Amino acid sequence: MMKKIPVIEIFGPTIQGEGMLIGQKTMFVRTAGCDYSCRWCDSAFTWDGSAKKEIRQLTALNIWRELQQLGGDRFNHVTISGGNPALIQALGELVSLLKQNGIRVALETQGSRWQEWFYEIDDLTISPKPPSSGMKTDFHVLDDIIFRLTKKEKQGVSLKVVVFDDADFSYAEMVHKRYPHIPFYLQVGNDAISSNDESMLRTALLDKLNWLVEKTVQSKDMNDVRVLPQLHTLLWGNKRGV
Amino acid sequence: MMKKIPVIEIFGPTIQGEGMLIGQKTMFVRTAGCDYSCRWCDSAFTWDGSAKKEIRQLTALNIWRELQQLGGDRFNHVTISGGNPALIQALGELVSLLKQNGIRVALETQGSRWQEWFYEIDDLTISPKPPSSGMKTDFHVLDDIIFRLTKKEKQGVSLKVVVFDDADFSYAEMVHKRYPHIPFYLQVGNDAISSNDESMLRTALLDKLNWLVEKTVQSKDMNDVRVLPQLHTLLWGNKRGV
Ligand code: SF4
Ligand code: SF4
What we know:
lyase (chains A, B); 4 iron, 4 sulfur cluster binding (chains A, B); TIM Barrel; nine-stranded mixed sheet; homodimer; Deazaguanine_synth (chains A, B)
């Protein structure tokens, strides 16, 4: 019997808005629950109780059928996101099922928890949280996760740090130096997660991106990094399910 | 004695605004001259005579020194762009020199000409031009280039097609089907290459991106592709040298 997975949204096809696969056509499965509570979390509804009624307990097969219903023959890539999907052991069943059906799978997690099924993920983004989040990175755990992942040769893995201010940038430099061989992405923080004024939001995000590019250009420790905005926020503002 | 390379700009560090390395911190070397004359070329100054006085004949060593002067210890990546840099055999000397100095090298060309030094490029973007450009792709030449590149195992190569309209999108589908194993990027065309109104330009580009995402989402032939804007145009409008 298949185990249940707490799911808060399934949507797509759309494009991945951020990180190593920015622009990639994909479906999204968003799980409920997080062991963090970042100050600026842009998916707090997955863990703060506000969307409690939307959480469904689904088996891997339920999820796969819903993905097929929504996406038909118009997808071959699925992104699993949260919350922190790494809390959910049963996700391994979904990952296997997707892979058996020829689907490429991406996952994003903050790197606070290991799961054996990480090895089956094609594109794994580890996104440790900077000081502005209010969270503290457990580097023993993170070291261990990165170590396990780099043992496997063909694992697609990247680090991504969201940057809001100078302290966050210093944290990003430190993380990049600690794991210099992992492809590294800097992402502009979104200060205005509840704004409905799309044009103001766009301007604010692009100004922030400009600032982050300038910081990166000036830093000799950040030569081999990539700086990116969240495309979905530029496109669709703070809307959910796009 | 080193051969001369016609160069129209050298600038950076900045970020790569488009394609497979979007967001990557890099320096730019832009060569003069093109065998095409695309209707919407956003670097027509490299070939239309308007910036003739800016063209300098430089050796690989001259270029490397200028890169070091500009970038100091704040870069380890160089992007060679044009015009069509694939016209210039002598660029092989620059590529070798950069690689000897531990620099990663990216190159963009439309795929109308082969050079043996392509094999030394780390990240090669082939960007065949769609109908709206007014140009005609020579698929004999393109087939041959793709065939040579895929013989080498570790070559980083991608295809990128700029899309302005439905006919361009159909062309992109055809190219993607012809070379299904090459990572494929769709890029939003910039209709307003001479606009100085940055906010209007941003809105127009994001509306266009929205349209292209929707086309891609609906197409079952475009499941494994990535859709991207030009970040530098969103950030800095149509300015040169950023
Ligand atoms: S780790 Fe992610 S989902 Fe969890 S609180 Fe932080 S930003 Fe939100
Ligand atoms: S191939 Fe590139 S540089 Fe040459 S005319 Fe076309 S867009 Fe311009």
